[in-house]
User: Fold this.
Amino acid sequence: MRDFRAELEKRREQGLYRWRRQVETPQQPDMVVDGRPVLSFCSNDYLGLANDPDAIAAARDALPETGLGGGASHLICGHHSAHHRLEETLARFTGRESALFFSTGYMANMGVISALAGRGDTIFSDRLNHASLIDGCILSRATVKRYPHCDMTALEEQLATTDGHKLVVTDGVFSMDGDVAPLPEMAALCRKHDALLVVDDAHGFGCVGPEGRGSVAHFGLGSEDVPIVIGTLGKAFGTSGAFVAGSAMMVDYLVQKARTYIYTTAMPPAVALASCTSVRLVKQADDRREHLARLINRFRREAQALGYTLMPSDTPIQPILLGDAWSALALSKALEGRGIWVTAIRPPTVPEGESRLRVTFSASHTEAHLDKLLTALGEAQQELPGHAA
Ligand SMILES: *Cc1c(COP(=O)(O)O)cnc(C)c1O
Assistant:
């Protein structure tokens, strides 16, 4: 038998051991964690909708009519009119003919990729794609070619030298870096080399593009350029679940083929109705997005002035690059001592030598919250000379 205990021990020795904290409040800047108050800068609740009174009221008001449980999978008897209404709402929001609602983004990616490519096909995948896209590629049994992050020359070279059915998959906004994929170039390459482009915009929806319609809309692209777009509802939308949007034919195909759609219980319908409210709130959230942009600009300016290394991002994902896992843990701990919560992100979530603190901003952060973060970062720098700069 494998020595599982020794593997755990090795993780600890390498600074790669992971543990969980217990949150005792809703997702919001001021949280209570393991019994202590902290100011959080690590949630993906970018617009502050996870605890929104209107979305909560939508779920609560729906419960007496929908009941609680999903009951069965969508193809047995679980497909509630609430789910269907959400799909229609999401199709309109993304400007697509149709949308299909999944229980999580992880499952959407596994299901969509394994349905659209199989043995003998080739999938081209950005090196920094989210784990769920990578696992979808593995599940599909297709040949996988990974290209260096956003390297369009490398992608073109790979596309040009590959025959057969080709799928290109990418994050829209990269989850651990915060930068945006060069979608116009990707769409042009896919057209030229007859490849199907799939964009997972988990971190783009709500944050970028007009009315928060995501990175595809941000570039002014449409369904001819990016035929399939995936979004999650657990981040900026503040609820739960995910969706795939595309042509009616494509959605019909996925209903037949996507195993993570077919073989799982439908999400509680009341949550789907809360998501309908969230979509409306996201569209109306220009003021929140403007406030976010101001926080992000100020953070970038002042954190860099303190000597921290940031990454080329203008989204709410603002990682501080540290390098080795111990430095990331040390800075995280120094901030925690000052009541600030930012989790260290270490391999294998990011490449070796690129451990970081993934600072994320929410529209519910105030300028005063940002003051506290910057002050703590300044003090931590004194405490950890050589580490943080
Ligand atoms: C979070 C995330 C997912 C997974 O979505 P869940 O709904 O949390 O399962 C998929 N793709 C990307 C890029 C993500 O960041």
